[in-house]
């Protein structure tokens, strides 16, 4: 009984404080109406100077040509609704981002949860967890339980916050849809009833999340003091019952709405801050620590070998690295590039024909052909314009031609030629012929084959080997050995000639192969620049990953449409409103991610047909049947370029 009486006393005191603050603001606004400059100051709290980002439009009637143009930017009803929607969407995004992180950790294995508790919460948690392991004899059961409780507590609080905000968003969206006709016709006249509705929705929101401070358990893992309860301002009953409000009463009510928004933002930011995911530097503190230690060791080592410590090692290494880089670039980039420029005669002639077709001027092509053939300038009696062309081509194209062929001219010098092989072959033939005639004692024709003569030499060689020492001094053994050496020389030169021909035929291929390191390095740099330019990590980007994320947003919308209808069929009104709010949040993210791409392709708003913007607005309407919405999502995936798969686009 005493607790109940204390609660009633606190409620009465809060109501008295609200009434006093309301009438004090009312009197102050009455006084400030006498000063014209103060009106601008009173409205400054509502008119923020920052630019609003694009978000899901209000569910206004689509019968008019453009309802958003009728409710102008000066309309206070439009401003307060936009501000509320923007704040709710922003808070939902913050909650959803942290909730997804904790849900991913909850789906991990027990070992993964223990690793998170020890190595992904900072050095302090690592030391505490290690000390706890030592105290308990390296028992992992306590760490398993504490990690599960740590994650589940944060999931429970963030899920409750998301549920309440999504329900508030859905209720506000449905109320705006109900009074949409009045807002379009006379927004100022319907502002009073809209403010009363917003006040009631804030009261429901306060009742749903104001008890989160009482959910903290005695052994909670949340650090620091817990957040205070959410206490929002309320409209006095006297003001709510009035049928016609004065301008000062409307401004006071608007100030109450913005005060409630400010309190709501503070409350949610404090609750989310105590249950948010660790920062990136906290998650990867072990990697950063090892990297810092490694860099420190490298820095000490570099200082020891630098001129600061009187050592010339560092300067010498830099010079050697510079010379090696320049040499590598010269040998593997410049020379292969010049080698690739070596073309045969027919290619050069075809280039001249291509120039004639590209520039539509036969004179230029003729000049190129003449320069290539003999280096002369044609058309001696040409006009001044043609003379300028001839001079330009003569001074540039001829130099380019000489530079293209200079590399191969240098490389072909000193290579094995067919004449050298022919000389060796003729010498061997004469040696075989003389040996055979001396051995057989008969005359052989000049065109006798080397194979027949070589058989005679080998037969004599085998006989001479019967008495090698005697025949080496007085026989034909030494002569036969010299003939075989000459034959071996001919075989080697023939093989070198064939190898040389293969190398010449594939010289461009080898040049390209030598240029591959530079090519791959350029390709890696190009990929890095492309990744930075496309910003492929978010749904707003231009790359393949961003396109996949946009398509996943449509899948998320489809799932929530089906879940919303399931809750409606089961009579679960609160759950259905929550799912509607989450669907609106997904549509807001989709709206923001596709707007820029659809505007670039002309699919955002079309004059003859409905564009992507209107399809997203139709999906947000609570009154449309789910089957129609699913048809719209299916059409969006197949029709709009920014939502197509990357393979279909290619």
Strand portion = under 5%
Q: How much helix, percentage-wise, in residues? A: over 70%
Uncertain stretches: 1-11, 32-50, 63-73, 340-383
**What is the CA-CA span between the terminal residues?**
74 Å
Mean pLDDT: 75
Overall number of strands = 0
Cα-atom Rg, whole angstroms? Answer: 44 Å
- Helical region count? 27
> What is the SS-derived class?
mainly alpha
Write down the secondary-structure element order: HHHHHHHHHHHHHHHHHHHHHHHHHHH
Largest sheet: none
Shape: elongated
Membrane topology: Multi-pass membrane protein
Main location: mitochondrion
Subcellular location: Mitochondrion membrane
Transmembrane segments: 283-303, 510-533
Overview of the molecule:
The chain has 650 residues and is mainly alpha-helical. 74% of the residues lie in helices and 0% in strands. It contains 27 helices and no strands. It is elongated.
Sum up the structure in keywords.
650 residues, 27 helices, elongated, disordered N terminus, NCA2-like, mitochondrion, Protein DGS1, mitochondrial, transmembrane helix
């Amino acid at each position: 009984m005493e607790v109940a009486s204390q609660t009633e006393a606190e409620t009465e005191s809060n109501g008295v404080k609200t009434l006093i603050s309301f009438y004090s603001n009312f009197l102050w606004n009455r006084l400030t109406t006498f000063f014209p400059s103060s009106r601008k100051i009173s409205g400054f709290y509502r008119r923020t100077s920052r630019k609003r980002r694009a978000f899901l439009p209000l569910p206004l009637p689509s019968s008019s040509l453009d309802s958003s143009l009728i409710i102008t930017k000066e309309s206070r009803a439009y401003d307060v609704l936009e501000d509320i929607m923007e704040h709710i969407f922003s808070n939902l995004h913050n909650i959803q981002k942290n909730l997804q992180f904790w849900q991913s950790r909850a789906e991990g294995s027990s070992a993964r949860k223990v690793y998170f508790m020890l190595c992904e919460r900072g050095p302090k948690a690592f030391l505490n967890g290690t000390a706890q392991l030592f105290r308990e004899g390296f028992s992992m059961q306590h760490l398993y339980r504490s990690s599960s409780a740590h994650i589940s507590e944060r999931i429970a609080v963030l899920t409750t916050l998301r549920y309440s905000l999504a329900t508030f968003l859905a209720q506000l969206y449905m109320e705006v849809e109900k009074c949409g006709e009045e807002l379009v016709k006379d927004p100022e006249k319907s502002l009073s009833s809209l403010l009363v509705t917003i006040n009631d929705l804030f009261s429901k929101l306060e009742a749903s999340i104001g008890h989160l401070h009482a959910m903290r358990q005695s052994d909670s893992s949340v650090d620091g003091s817990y957040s205070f309860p959410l206490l929002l301002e309320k409209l006095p009953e006297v003001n709510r019952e009035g049928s016609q409000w004065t301008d000062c009463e409307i401004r006071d009510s608007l100030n109450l709405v913005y005060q409630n928004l400010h309190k709501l933002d503070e409350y949610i930011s404090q609750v989310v801050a105590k249950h948010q995911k660790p920062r990136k530097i906290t998650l990867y503190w072990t990697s950063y620590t090892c990297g810092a230690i490694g860099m420190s060791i490298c820095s000490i080592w570099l200082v020891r070998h630098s001129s600061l410590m009187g050592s010339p090692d560092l300067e010498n290494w830099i010079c050697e690295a510079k010379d090696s880089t320049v040499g590598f670039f010269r040998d593997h980039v410049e020379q292969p590039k010049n080698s690739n420029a070596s073309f045969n005669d027919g290619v050069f002639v075809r280039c001249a024909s291509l120039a004639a077709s590209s520039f539509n001027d036969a004179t230029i092509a003729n000049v190129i052909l003449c320069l290539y053939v003999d280096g002369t300038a044609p058309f001696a009696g040409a006009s001044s314009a043609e003379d300028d062309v001839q001079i330009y081509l003569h001074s540039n194209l001829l130099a380019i031609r000489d530079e293209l062929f200079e590399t191969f001219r240098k490389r072909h010098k000193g290579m094995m030629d067919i004449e050298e092989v022919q000389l060796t072959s003729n010498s061997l033939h004469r040696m075989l012929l003389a040996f055979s005639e001396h051995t057989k004692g008969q005359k052989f024709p000049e065109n006798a084959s080397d194979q027949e003569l070589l058989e005679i030499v080998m037969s004599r060689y085998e006989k001479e080997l019967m008495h090698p020492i005697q025949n080496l001094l007085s026989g034909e053994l030494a002569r036969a050995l010299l003939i075989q050496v000459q034959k071996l020389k001919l075989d080697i030169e023939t093989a070198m000639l064939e190898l040389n021909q293969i190398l010449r035929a594939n010289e461009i291929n080898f040049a390209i192969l030598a240029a591959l390191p530079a090519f791959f390095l350029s390709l890696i740099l190009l990929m890095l620049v492309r990744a930075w330019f496309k910003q492929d990590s978010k749904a707003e980007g231009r790359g393949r990953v961003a396109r996949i994320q946009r398509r996943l947003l449509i899948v998320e919308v489809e799932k929530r449409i089906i879940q919303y209808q399931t809750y409606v069929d089961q009579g679960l009104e609160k759950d259905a409103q929550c799912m509607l709010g989450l669907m609106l949040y997904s549509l807001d993210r989709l709206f923001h991610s596709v707007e820029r791409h659809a505007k670039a392709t002309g699919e955002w708003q079309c004059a003859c047909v409905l564009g992507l913007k209107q399809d997203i607005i139709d999906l947000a309407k609570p009154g449309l049947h789910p089957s129609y919405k699913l048809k719209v999502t299916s059409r969006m995936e197949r029709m709009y370029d920014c939502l197509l798969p990357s393979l279909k686009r290619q």
